[in-house]
Specification:
The protein is an alpha/beta fold and about 400 residues long. It has helices at about 5-15, 25-40, 55-65, 75-85, 100-105, 110-115, 120-130, 170-180, 195, 205-240, 255, 270, and strands at about 20-25, 45-50, 70-75, 90, 115-120, 140-145, 150, 155-160, 185-190, 245, 265, 290-300, 305, 325, 330-335, 345, 360-365, 375-380, 385-390. Strands 1, 12, 13, 14, 15, 16, 17, 18 and 19 form a nine-stranded mixed beta sheet that branches. Strands 2-3-4-5-6-9-10-11 form an eight-stranded parallel β-barrel, surrounded by five helices. It has a two-stranded antiparallel sheet with strand order 7-8. β18 and β19 (about 385-390) form a beta hairpin. The two termini are about 40 Å apart.
Length: about 400
């Protein structure tokens, strides 16, 4: 029996009393992935990206391990909810235009002390001030650096379109603007190198593309390390008491941690290890989060149909954004239908051994987005479900 077949047998036994659709997290794999992130971080603290987990119980489980410290949230509403839930260090990773929540933040000393907001433009400060509604608390501010690699005089750009702040002078200028402005305090810098941390460098069947990605990422790491260090020096000249410099992501933990200028690493997807992280040479994780759909039809030889399963991930549309049939091994989508909203045909010889009501296990393309589909996660240890915990959705929250 292969390791994957053994996992399938365990998951089927653990969830035999549960009807599919059902989502699980294998705690042994989750904990092993957490240990691997810590090993790669080399002693620097890891701030957990909450959007990649979206379950308070599992955020708490990871934070209970030495080496994890703080959360990186994705909306202001989520940030305030997490702070009210007892999380004391929440960095909002994206600028917000949520005026109502800014009014709450600036009126509550506890929230203002726990939550740091992201900016890259003085206009965002104007919006916060206009939303204060009498709130006088000092707002903790993090400045975001654009990490994109610019080539050929800027005519070619590689990287996500995030912050407009690219040079040390631009970031330092904004730091000075914040320092002159009552009611705000610069406490951190963030730089997310998504073109390194979030792009696989070993694409199956595409050796030339994989080599090109590796060359691009090596150049991007060198350029960013030099520029990030210069940015930190420039900002510390304005804000000597800067608390943190955040960088990285699951795919670049060890590379970003090697930079002296970086004080903490951001990561989250590496706890679940979704399918997009299969294409990396820098690390190997264990799939920890899976979902199962029930077999509801047997249309013919070598074919079964499961209920639902069309859970595409965000990003540029493509096959790599679809969940992948994982267990039993050897199933594939019908190219005429793909992953459907209400039914999904699956092809392959393993289909002939599946009966009506059997479970087919899938891996989502991304990590936390799976939790937008399920109210609960069943936590599996060995071949038993030892706890059932709510996702954000199960607690009544859909923050985006």
């Amino acid at each position: 029996m292969t390791a994957r077949a053994a996992d399938r047998a365990r998951y089927d036994r653990a969830t035999a009393h549960l009807d599919a659709p059902v989502a699980i997290v294998d705690l042994e794999a989750f904990d092993a992935n957490a240990d691997d992130l810590l090993r790669r971080a080399g002693g620097k603290p890891i701030r957990i990206a909450s959007k990649s987990v979206r379950c308070r119980a599992l955020l708490e489980r990871a934070l209970a391990r030495d080496g994890f410290a703080g959360l990186m949230s994705f909306t202001l509403a989520e940030s305030l909810w997490l702070a009210r839930s007892g999380f004391e260090d929440v960095l909002l990773a994206y600028p917000s235009a949520d005026r109502a929540r800014y009014a709450e933040l600036t009126a509550d000393p506890k929230l203002a002390a726990a939550v740091t907001v992201m900016i890259d433009d003085p206009a965002q400060l104007d919006l916060i001030d206009a939303a204060r509604d009498g709130g006088r608390e000092v707002v903790r501010v993090c400045l975001e650096l654009d990490t994109s690699l610019k080539l050929f005089g800027g005519r070619v750009r590689v990287g996500a379109r995030r912050s407009p702040l690219h040079s040390p002078a631009q970031v330092a200028d904004l730091a000075r603007a914040v320092a002159r402005r009552p009611g705000f305090e610069v406490v951190g810098i963030m730089a997310y190198e998504g073109h390194v941390a979030g792009v696989g460098d070993a694409v199956a069947g595409r050796p030339l593309r994989s080599r090109a990605v590796r060359l691009m990422q090596a150049a991007a790491r060198r350029e960013l390390a030099e520029r990030r260090a210069a940015v930190v020096r420039a900002v510390r000249a304005v804000v000597p008491g800067l608390e943190f410099v955040n960088g990285g992501g699951t795919g670049s933990v060890q590379h970003t941690a090697a930079e002296d200028a970086v004080t903490e690493i951001a990561a989250g997807s590496g706890l679940y290890v979704p399918r997009l992280f299969d294409n990396y040479t820098s690390f190997r994780g264990r799939p920890a989060a899976l979902f199962a759909q029930p077999v509801v039809r047997r249309p013919g030889v070598g074919v079964v149909t499961v209920l639902g399963g069309g859970y595409p991930a965000s990003g540029a549309a493509g096959k790599d954004r679809l969940p992948v049939p994982y267990l039993p091994e050897g199933l594939r989508y019908d190219p005429q239908e793909g992953a459907g909203e209400v039914q999904t045909p699956l092809l392959g010889t393993p289909a002939d051994d599946l009966l009506i009501g059997d479970k087919v296990w899938f891996r989502h393309a991304k990590a936390g987005e799976l939790c937008e589909r399920f109210d609960t996660l069943h936590l599996v240890e060995g071949d038993a479900v030892t706890a059932t915990v709510p996702t954000y959705r199960g607690e009544g929250h859909a923050f985006l």
